[in-house]
Amino acid sequence: MSTDRRKFLKHFGTSVLLTSASLSSLAAKEEHEVRILRQQKRMSANDRIRIATIGMGIMGFNDTKAALSVPGVELAGVCDLYKGRLAHAKEVYGNDLFTTMDHRDILERKDIDAVIVATSDNWHSQISIDAMRKGKAVYSEKPMVHKISQGLEEIRVQKETKAVFQVGSQRVSSIAYRKAKEMYEAGAIGKINSIEASFNRQSALGAWQYTIPSDGNIQNVDWSRYQANADVKHDFDPKRFFRWRNYREYGTGVAGDLFVHLLTGIHFITGSKGPESIYSIGDLTYWKDGRNVPDVMSAVIHYGETKEHPSFQVTLRVNFISGEGDYGTTKIIGSEGVIDLGGEGDSFSIRKSIMPEAPGIGGWDSLFTYTEAEQKKLLSEYNQRWTKAQQESPTIDPITYRAPEGYNSSNDHFANFIEAIRTGKPVIEDAVFGFRAAAPALACNDSYFQKKVIHWDAENMKVV
């Protein structure tokens, strides 16, 4: 029996995260067992934390809602470059809410403890650095940088200021991902060799053709501030503002928006610091709406052997016009099974497949090409050497682990962030971890546009 398998069976027998009695009895009758994961009990607030959100788009509003799910958190202000979103923030959170179109007004306020940076990608790094230097804790949406060259400076500022800094890839706080990591480390799938991860979408909204407001014009948008750090300036275009993910000048395409989620989860479960080489290809196949990033993209990424893990390869794919519909998964494949993570960090399954000890004979084999006498001789010798049990694969039913109904990993991610502010406990996704996930994702863009393999030094976090 392999060491990995022995570790898994030992862990399997002592696991406390099992089903309720009803699910246990059901599992005895069903081939596929389902186990409900337990949520951590969050303690009530021991002091008040006042936050402000910079960028009140889709993620800004959702992040604010998740942050306010943590006891003792209050919203002290919001910033956005479109007046309509500031007006809506007052509709939701009250007319007394402080609003501004200049993020520096937020950072100057002494009554704000932490900021959520949920702007377009091109502003993540600069606003986060400004906020840390002003003594604010920072929750930065992913990717934490717009360009790989920004990463080491942001890490340096975080270490210099000792500010609490967390990146917003919420799946690393998910109870499902924590359990998947536990099972992986227990040897549930044997020795890892490859990972397949993807996001499929099949809708205009899924492809970032977001609704543009009728008053989304130059009078209601601070266009000059929005593109102040862009290398090339453009005349006002509402699509470039409200659908910024489609443009390299402000967003990071499917790689920075979605590959980074996949890599974050992969690094969390495997303990990896990052890959050695990255190569990607892509096309703009369907959503030809002015965007300058692909809507179908694939990458092959190689992870070399380290003290944390054996060597393995990763294939990443995003398809914005997939006939499979909206579907995403991460399959971590080992020598004895697969961990299949689906959805947004709320469930995963383990499917085991273990080779028999005997090598096999007959079937799709050269045996039938020999003389009958030779076939009989070889079969006889085989059956004498290997028992029936050794000739058969062990049968292990699949298991699904699932979060409780209504579970939201974003709420847990913000609970971790607020706990770090209150207690000094390390965050779950700090600047180093966040950059080590973001940089290979952004390197996929570099590989695509430059048409070459990108070599990455994961330890020192730099392009080779």
From TrEMBL:
Domain of life where this protein originates: Bacteria
Keyword flag Manganese: no
Stretches assigned to the GFO/IDH/MocA-like oxidoreductase domain: 228-339
InterPro entries: Gfo/Idh/MocA-like_OxRdtase_N, Gfo/Idh/MocA_oxidrdct_glycsds, GFO_IDH_MocA-like_dom, NAD(P)-bd_dom_sf
Alphabetical UniProt keywords: Oxidoreductase
Keyword Oxidoreductase on entry: yes
Ranges where the Gfo/Idh/MocA-like oxidoreductase N-terminal domain occurs: 49-168
Protein name: Gfo/Idh/MocA family oxidoreductase
Organism: Mucilaginibacter litoreus
